[in-house]
Structure formats: structure tokens, C-alpha cells
Amino acid sequence: MRIMKIKRFKSENGAVVVIVALSIVALMMVTALTIDVGSLYEERRHLQTVADAAALAGAQQLP
Predict the structure, then answer these.
(1) Model confidence over 7-62: pLDDT tens digits?
(2) How many domains are there within the chain?
(3) Is the dihedral of CA 28, 29, 33, 34 positive or negative?
(4) Residue 63 DSSP label
(5) Distance in angstroms (rounded) separating the CA atoms of residues 13 and 1
(6) Start and end of every Putative Flp pilus-assembly TadG-like N-terminal domain (predicted)?
(7) Cα separation of 48 and 32, whole Å?
(8) Whole-prediction pTM value?
């Protein structure tokens, strides 16, 4: 009986490693997506600032 329990736990160890490895990959993908979306919003904000500055500079040149 004891031998069967040891074999059962031994076979589950490999499954745990696979689950942990897949979880780490998924976590890295979510982290990369978060960084990419953050960069996208930062670039959008920068472009809007440049457009606002250009509009103000153009408006100041009007008579």
C-alpha cells in the first residue's frame, strides 16, 4: 500500500513541473503585454503633446 502512494506522488511531481513552467510562461506573456500597452499609451500621450504644441504655435502666428 505504501509503495502505491509513493509511485502516485512521484508521477504527480512531473505534472507539477509542467504546470509551473506553463504558469511562468503565461506570466511572462502578461508582463510583456503590460509593458507594450504602457509604451503605447506613453507614445500616444507624447504625440498628443506635440500636436497640442504645434496647434498653439500655429494659433500664435495668426494675426
Answers:
(1) 555 666 678 889 999 999 999 999 999 999 999 999 999 999 999 999 999 999 99
(2) 1
(3) negative
(4) -
(5) 19
(6) 14-61
(7) 24
(8) 0.62
